[in-house]
Amino acid sequence: MRIARTRPGSARRGVATAALAVSVVLGVATSPVPAVASAETFFFDDIGSTAVPRANCGPGSLPETGMQGDVPAEDRNNGRSTQGYRCNMSLVGGLQDRGGGLLSVTYDHCSYTSTFFPGNLLNPTTPGVQVLDVSNPAQPVLSTTLNEPAMLGGTWESLKVNKARKLLAATAVPIAAGTGYFSVYDISDCAHPRLLNPGAGSDVTMPLPFISHEGGFSPDGNTYWVSGPAPGFLTAIDISNPAEPRIIWQGLHGLGGHGFGITPDGNRMYLSNLGGITVLDISAVQRGDPYPTVPQIATYLWTDGFFNQHSIPVTYGDKPYIFTVDETGGGGIKVFDVADPAHAEIVQKIKLEIQLPANTAANLRSSQGGSVFSYDPHYCVVDRPADPTALACSWESSGIRVFDIRDLNRISEIAYYNPPAQTGKNVQLTNSPHALSSLIGVSLFNFVPLARAVFEGKTDPRVAFGPRAGMVAFGDLSADWCFSPPEFHGNQIWTSCSDNGFMALQLDDTVYQPPANQASTYGQ
């Protein structure tokens, strides 16, 4: 499937120039403005209207009762959603405690539960990042807690692992944006992380100058990249010597930024922006040039979804692609052919039925009382970067979804696990962003795609008025929010959802056989 794109006129070339990674000075050495006269901005206005084929649920499943990905209003009201929904995937074990934070990660036989500020501080015994020993996936246990400022201040989407160097790192992000605090740990003994930078970044009197919302490692683990949401501020922190982290490049790339994906060689970044991705050449940082520049290669914008979350570079044969995820707006996941990153093409889209334009009113109907997010993907993982066979995604209120991606022209869903709703447990789940956000009941991000679908005559707005239409405040947690990367561990997937906390999930052998060289990755 090829998606038509529009080549920009002079106005959009102006946008591209404004989105340039312009270097600024915050008391550190930064690059001059790079020359990128050839960089262009491309615009895609196609709205995907096809869902991937449903999974065929085998024995032991407890399938969804409505359309693919939906938790119907009736199920939320009558308690059916508290049983959860599962198809070819089952729960092995878990550890809920006070919730799973926003974006938690795993390594070896351990999981690291992110913190969501300020709710995490209401747990006086373990307020920081919880380290879970999952040697026995049926009975995960708390090993220790990380309590440096970066870990106590809310890690948002910055808590990440680098497998090559066995490192864990995060920045403090109290409320969507943060600055100053950054800690790096040696996780060679994954259940007992060892702080590597007790000075700069971890000492409360020695903050570092950056703006943070999300962060992640270069593949070799020598650089930790930090992105800010508004403005779109990007920072490269050299951690080749983790004891002395130092900022080696900073730039303003646009009005807003989010996550990213980095190619395995560390030379190219696919940086998320508010409505698409910006492709950057980061090879000078990767090489360790003393005064690196970061040229812009191209920018891709679209109307089908917004708040792009992150990208995963992969190859099929020797041909490069990316899977890129839209956090809101019903855009789902887009697959780009990036053989020429300056002229990339969308070749496939992955959506669930509940995201289609014709179902936007039904989406709003069922998600009322669930707070600001509803049925969109957040973080995805491939089971290996070269010739991947499966893609697992956290899909907010649709739970964990797994897809067969061996053939990009025949992508299909093979399994899902939407955990039991924790209805009414708002007060207990102090480390759940869902519980804390549920002062707002209405799904705010649904209104743009709904308005567009109504304007185009693709949906009936009257469908949106159901039994939960009045729940504009004080949401009831009648479906969980799943945000964390669902990481492959053999035939299991380890992940965390906001309300249910950490979960080890078992994929049925009938739908997934792990490749011999399985190497789970989310692009950072």
TrEMBL record:
Annotated keywords: Signal
Keyword Repeat: no
Signal peptide range in chain numbering: 1-37
Region annotation Disordered: where it falls in the sequence: 58-82
Name the record gives this protein: LVIVD repeat-containing protein
